[in-house]
Design a protein that fits this description.
Blueprint lengths: L7 H29 L5 H24 L1 H8 L3 H27 L2 H9 L7 H10 L3 H17 L3 H24 L4 H34 L9 H30 L4 H23 L1 H8 L8 H22 L2 H9 L4 H10 L6 H17 L3 H25 L4 H24 L8 H7 L3 H6 L3
Length: about 450
């Protein structure tokens, strides 16, 4: 029986559980910021977490972030799964070692003191926070690996359930820290580290039926996955978030050298978390594109869904920025002081286009990943970091504008150029697989519709 052609409804069915997962993850940073803002010394604690701990932790974790995409694309049989699992675990151990070197040795003073040049007041809280965040990278690595398997075998809804479990755990620890009046940095990092650990345990438990059933029984691929093929596919992908996330401490370092550094670093995690919530619907789209291109005739459904999603999310963010809703968020939900509320509400205008850019990035990157042209993805992020660095340098040289405005402008400009490069490098790719490849790798549309919790 010939597989059914892809429809917009099928794309939505695959996308919404992942979008719900990303949206819940997007709530994490605003929730953490809101609680920390209500504890003692909020500006210092927010600056330590958002300006130092979170960016550095993300940078260390970056090489393993794209394991979700790799697992979705490559775990088609047991042999590929086993090889990618070994790779994931080995990488997680190495990255955790790097995290400990920075958090627990004099390397911390070099990175935070000399490279970032963070204000002295936030350095010691940041050191404590980094130490608490040690389990973060390994937990994220393994749960993203297993989530890719769940997505490939039609269990994407479980990814959303896992994120809900993680968010519940974070809320429990945030409440514990608030009620016991822990310091802001301890409350934030304990909650975040515990949340991802709980989610990783959940992923291990719910993936067992897939590993023992559909994956174990899957027909072996005609060409086995070798280490050389795996590295050729994954290394360019790994470089992508590494370079992108490098922009976070780069922006922190630049804002530390611009006017009002404490204000900028304090607002930065709140604004980033708010924008992340809207951008997350695009992040959730990448794996859907990869799988959709393995179905017959995706040429109509994907562009239609992409344009509609980008228009919807951009319009919603524009309406929030144009109404008192933005100030209400920063003041009532995030708990920022009045002077910081004004900074955040102004800076949000610069990022209005970012959610739409994220949707189109997911489409263009998904096509390149599907075609195993991952080198082009790396090229795009180097374009991003180059543009971002130039604008940040202009802001430092200017020396008269509050840093967060130049930081946000740099991110938007870099993302726009990155999106253009992804489109440019993938514009001539074929949109569907050859028939003989389709017969071996096709993902039935019905698998998305019939997946059960």
């Amino acid at each position: 029986m010939e597989p059914r052609k892809l429809s917009t409804g099928s794309v939505f069915t695959a996308w919404w559980p992942l979008a719900a997962s990303w949206l819940m993850m997007g709530l994490e940073l605003p929730l953490v910021s809101a609680v920390v803002a209500r504890l003692v010394d909020p500006s210092i604690q927010l600056a330590a977490y958002g300006g130092i701990v979170f960016p550095i932790s993300l940078l260390i974790e970056a090489p393993i972030i794209m394991i979700l995409t790799a697992s979705t694309a490559l775990c088609k049989d047991w042999d590929s799964f086993a090889k990618l699992r070994r790779f994931t675990l080995a990488t997680a151990v190495i990255l955790t070692g790097i995290h400990l070197l920075i958090a627990a040795t004099p390397l911390f003073d070099f990175v935070v003191g000399r490279l970032i040049d963070a204000p002295m007041a936030i350095r010691e809280p940041a050191r404590i926070g980094l130490l608490i965040m040690t389990p973060w990278t390994a937990a994220i690595a393994y749960r993203r690996f297993l989530q890719g398997v769940l997505i490939r075998f039609g269990r994407s809804r479980l990814v959303g359930v896992g994120t809900a479990v993680r968010l519940a755990a974070i809320l429990v620890f945030l409440a514990t820290g608030y009620l016991n009046r822990w310091s802001g940095i301890v409350t934030a990092t304990v909650a975040v580290a515990a949340g991802v650990t709980v989610e990783a345990i959940f992923a291990i438990l719910v993936s067992r039926p897939v590993l023992r059933g559909p994956l174990r029984n899957a027909k072996p691929m005609s060409q086995a996955l070798t280490l050389r093929k795996l590295l050729a596919f994954y290394v360019p992908l790994a470089a992508t978030p590494l370079v992108v996330i490098f922009a976070q401490p780069l922006a922190s370092a630049a804002m530390s050298r611009m006017p009002n550094p404490i204000d900028s670093l304090a607002v930065w995690p709140v604004l980033a978390g708010f924008l992340f919530t809207f951008r997350s619907v695009g992040f959730a789209y990448n794996e859907v594109v990869v799988l959709s291109l393995e179905t017959p005739d995706p040429d109509r459904a994907l562009p239609r869904f992409t344009i509609g999603l980008a228009a919807a999310v951009t319009t919603i963010l524009f309406l929030i920025a144009a109404t008192p809703a933005a100030r209400l968020w920063f003041e009532n939900v995030s708990g920022l002081p009045p002077d910081l509320v004004a900074v955040g509400a102004s800076a949000i205008w610069i990022g209005v286009v970012m959610p739409g850019l994220s949707v189109f990035q997911a489409l263009f990157m998904g096509k390149l990943v599907h075609a195993h042209r991952t080198r082009a993805v790396t090229e795009a992020v180097f374009v991003y970091i180059a543009v971002t660095a130039v604008i940040l340098a202009i802001g430092v040289r200017n020396g008269t504008v509050t840093g967060i405005y130049f930081g946000q402008l740099a991110m938007v400009s870099g993302n726009a150029c990155q999106t253009f490069w992804l489109w440019f490098r993938g514009r001539r790719l074929g949109r569907t697989l050859p028939a003989e490849v389709l017969a071996e790798t096709v993902v039935p549309v019905e698998a998305w519709k019939e997946s059960k919790l």
